[in-house]
Design goal:
This protein is mainly α and 322 residues long. Helices cover 69% and strands 10% of the residues. The longest helix is centred in the middle third of the chain and has 31 residues. Pfam families: Cation_efflux.
């Protein structure tokens, strides 16, 4: 993992919040004027995104609190909790409303068409504003991915910062949703059939449901306790194997306890000739070397164990299969 600029995630979220709030107001007005289900669904989409940004700002603020007696490992996982609520918000207030509007439009009697000019103008302005927010999110994702030597897709899969991923995916969904709403509005005008408007609304609902599912699954894994980046784990294993006092690395356990914060527990079989005082000094030295090499390590526990212990060996086999 790479060290991210301290305020970049906050800037990305704040920019997205104000953009989505402005867009939500414009879409709601256009939706009422045109009576378009797709435009109203996009208004609900932007409202959901605005709530999402507010939740993400809460996540950023609360997760940065220092460790205390009740939470000795800090509050880093609060970022995952509030980000999970953001995913629920996208589904509950965005996708469900879009589905409702879509089905209502499909099964209602055909209404006289209203001039959609206002809808086109608002959707066009919204697209421009969303591009501003999306560009900031994409810039951060791209720079973070480049710093870790990964492609953007792989970075999004392994990133431990759900706030940036949430903003990037919801802004991407917003741009796609605007295209769908514009298409529904245009086809309704061309054909005179409100079915296209309803279909566009349903597709927006599906889009939001998919985004909500992806984000919920990501944050669920982080809350449960996902291991650190496998590349980092292998590097830690190798560094420990090269320590002179260590005969064998028996096990390396890691868990993400926040963005750029990793808990490490390493079980090591030390050389039998190492005395107790030397072992204590070696553990302190090894911890310092690991922190210097891997700044994301927040807490380090080194446990001396015999690699021949059958129970310990079986636990490793059950976990890794080797």
């Amino acid at each position: 993992m790479s060290e991210k600029p301290a305020g970049e995630s906050t800037l990305t979220v704040v920019l997205a919040l104000f953009v989505n709030l402005a867009i939500a107001i414009m879409k709601a007005i256009a939706g009422v004027i045109t009576g378009s289900a797709a435009v109203l669904s996009e208004a609900a989409h932007s409202v959901a995104d605005t709530f999402t940004e507010a939740l993400l700002l809460t996540a950023l603020r609360r997760s940065d609190r220092p460790a205390d007696r009740k939470h000795p490992f800090g509050y880093g996982k609060e970022r995952y909790f509030w980000s999970l609520l953001a995913a629920v918000s996208i589904f509950a207030s965005g996708a469900m409303f879009a589905f409702y509007e879509g089905f209502r439009t499909l099964f209602q009697d055909s209404e006289q068409e209203v001039d959609p000019t206002v809808g086109y103008i608002v959707l066009g302005l919204a697209f421009v504003l969303e591009c501003v927010s999306w560009t900031q999110a994409f810039r951060q994702v791209r720079s973070s991915a480049a710093a870790e030597g990964r492609g953007i897709r792989k970075f999004l899969e392994v990133s431990d910062d759900p706030t940036v991923k949430t903003v990037f995916l919801e802004d991407s969904a917003a741009l796609i949703g605007l295209v769908l709403a514009f298409s529904g509005l245009g086809l309704h005008q061309l054909t005179g059939s409100h079915v296209w408007d309803g279909v566009a609304s349903l597709l927006i609902g599906v889009l939001l449901a998919v985004v909500a599912y992806v984000l919920a699954r990501t944050n669920r894994g982080l809350l449960i306790g996902r291991q650190a980046d496998p590349v980092m784990v292998k590097a830690i294993w190798k560094q420990l194997s090269d320590v002179p006092e260590v005969d064998a690395v028996v096990d390396v356990l890691t868990m993400l306890i926040g963005t750029d914060r990793v808990l490490l527990c390493a079980r090591l079989d030390f050389d039998d000739s190492v005395t107790v005082p030397a072992l204590e000094h070696a553990c302190v030295r090894i911890s310092g070397e690991l922190r210097a090499a891997f700044p994301d390590l927040d807490e380090i526990f080194l446990e001396p164990v015999p690699r021949t212990d059958p129970d310990l060996r079986q636990r490793v086999l059950d976990r890794y299969g080797f």
